[in-house]
Known about the structure:
Oligomer: single chain
Amino acid sequence: MMESIAGMAMDMSAAQFATNYSIAVTKKMMDTQELAAQEMLRMLPPPTQGMGEFIDVYA
């Protein structure tokens, strides 16, 4: 009985570690993607006056 409780505790600890690791990797990936998007936006040319103000929906 004690062995099964200890085994379940180890399994639960391993599952918790795996979950925490997965969340940390996901957060890091999201931060990296955010920085990449910011760099891409920074590379875009500045908007020109009058361009993009109106959309021709009848075309």
